[in-house]
Amino acid sequence: MTWTTAPEPYDSPAATALWRAYYTEVSDRWYLLHEGRRTDPAELEREVAARSGAELAPPTGELIVGRYDGTPAGTAGVRLLAPGTAELTRVYIREELRGRGGAALLVAAAEESARALGADRVVLDTRTDLTEARALYARLGYEETAPHNTDPYAGHWFRKDLRARC
Questions:
Q1: How many helices (H) and strands (E) does the chain have?
Q2: CATH number of the domain bearing residue 109
Q3: In degrees rounded to 5, what are phi and psi of residue 44?
Q4: Residue 93 falls inside a structural domain
């Protein structure tokens, strides 16, 4: 069983299915933690539709889809925020395939895409309850920083200099 990564349109069937799975998981985790319930189905549909991922389209963004043994299994996206700065977003691996190295491969592919877009640094934000994500970013050389946005769900912000290749 092997991983492959490749750019894919944000609205492809595979990317759309992975976005729905990602959003369902992170939304359910938030609501279970804060309100003791899962995401309301109508809210889920509204939010999935409202956040299409169009910002991850060329020429200023890119979505990478990871496949495990040919099956769509995860994503990572980048988009330019400003000259030289890209944001890493939508890093996700289907739960049953976690722990098999896919997340690191997707992040590395997204960093290469960010370089190709002209970025020399990557920033990201994540929630406090997404402890696995925070551990991944730290392991991959991201340093926690002061906030770079006002996202109400963000609790941690990270940055990585792309000029120094690991």
A1: 4, 7
A2: 3.40.630.30
A3: -60, -50
A4: yes
Count of CB atoms situated within 10 Å of the CB of 88: 27
Does a structural domain hold residue 155?
Answer: yes
Q: What is the pLDDT of residues 110-155, one digit of tens each?
A: 999 999 999 999 999 998 888 999 999 999 999 999 999 988 888 9
**Structure token pair of residue 136:** 């991944």
Asked if the structure places residue 44 within a domain, the reply is no
Calpha distance 77→79 (Å, rounded): 7
71 CB-contact burial (10 Å; exposed 0-12 / middle 13-18 / buried 19+)? exposed
Q: Report the distance separating Cα 2 and Cα 100, nearest Å.
A: 9
Q: Is residue 21 part of a domain?
A: no
- The number of distinct structural domains making up the chain is 1
Band of pLDDT at residue 65, cut at 50, 70 and 90: very high
Q: Which residue has the tokens 């912000």?
A: 157
Residue 102: pLDDT above 70?
yes
Q: Which domain holds residue 98?
A: 3-8+57-161
